[in-house]
Write a structure and sequence with these properties.
Blueprint lengths: L8 E5 L4 H12 L3 E6 L2 H11 L5 E5 L7 H8 L5 E4 L14 H10 L1 H15 L5 E6 L12 H21 L4 E8 L5 H15 L20 H12 L10 E4 L9 H12 L2 H10 L2
Parallel strand pairs: 1-2, 1-4, 2-3, 4-5, 5-6, 6-7
């Protein structure tokens, strides 16, 4: 399918690594012209050197958690057709282990960084369709977990903002949409899971054990998230606005580990014993 993204101007925050870099590669493969923003200058240079071989790309170092930075980015790149909000570094941990300082730092980048950049770039996009804002959020907004409370709450807030804007922004020629990835196999995710596996199992190489209850026993690949972002940013999705699409292999609607195993047994034996097991877990 031709996504008709050739020569579209795309701004990607957090574009120097992980999902953001995969999104950048995807747009370049479609012939788009991209700008990536990262607060890590060294990582930005490395990413630009890699991406330059694929197409027209430029980059800027901005820390979007700082006051005035989102407005500066919007003013410099006011002619973009697509904004992909992707920057974020939310800590794992429960409500007692993430202190207020770290919580506010995380939200300054992801929650207020997204909101302030949308607020600043919206007037430049208004009345010049087709413009698109894609917010890369996270499945924690729909399937909260005890050990990711800061990220859960951030994604709930940004889902609300995405839906609030997208319900009317289309009247201004701007579609606002979101994607909710589940676990994605990025360098950062692998590092977090290796640390967890070392702590809990004494063996960092067992980090994949945490995906045994996930679809296909794995995390998503960054390209699988990028593909959905590209489709939503294209005119193939011209009647999609205010929607947040899960990109999780069905995990949002998956049973618990135990019920998933009993459903497998149901396919191997008669239903009566399984029904008793299910009743016992309610």
């Amino acid at each position: 399918m031709d996504l008709a993204l050739t020569d579209r101007r795309v701004l990607i925050t957090g574009g120097s690594q992980g999902v953001g870099k995969a999104i950048a590669r995807g747009f370049l493969a479609e012939g788009a012209k991209i700008v990536i923003v990262s607060r890590d200058q060294a990582r930005l240079r490395t990413a630009l050197a890699e991406l330059a071989a694929l197409g027209q790309v430029e980059g800027r170092a901005f820390d979007l958690s700082q006051r005035g930075a989102p407005e500066a980015v919007a003013d410099e790149f006011r002619d973009v057709d697509v904004l992909v909000n992707n920057a974020g570094a939310i800590p794992t941990g429960d409500i007692f282990s993430v202190d207020e300082t770290r919580w506010r730092e995380a939200w300054d980048l992801k929650v207020f960084g997204y909101i302030n950049l949308m607020r600043a770039i919206y007037p430049h996009m208004r009345g010049k369709p087709p413009k698109v804002i894609v917010n890369v959020l996270g499945l924690g907004g729909e399937k909260p977990q005890w050990h990711y409370v800061c990220g859960n709450a951030a994604n709930v807030a940004l889902m609300g903002v995405t839906k609030s804007l997208g319900g009317r922004s289309i009247d201004d020629g701007i579609r606002v949409v979101g994607v909710n990835p589940g676990g994605v196999e990025t360098e950062r995710m692998i590092m977090i899971q290796r640390t967890r596996a070392q702590r809990e199992f004494g063996d960092p190489e067992r980090w994949r054990d945490y995906f045994k209850d996930k679809p296909l026993n794995r995390a998503a690949m960054p390209e699988e998230v990028a593909n959905v972002v590209l489709f939503l940013a294209s005119e193939r999705a011209s009647w999609v606005s205010g929607a947040v699409v899960p990109v999780d292999g069905g995990f949002l609607h998956r049973e618990s580990w135990f019920l998933g195993r009993t459903s497998l047994k149901r396919n191997q034996s008669k239903a009566a014993p399984v029904r008793r097991a299910q009743r016992d877990t309610r």
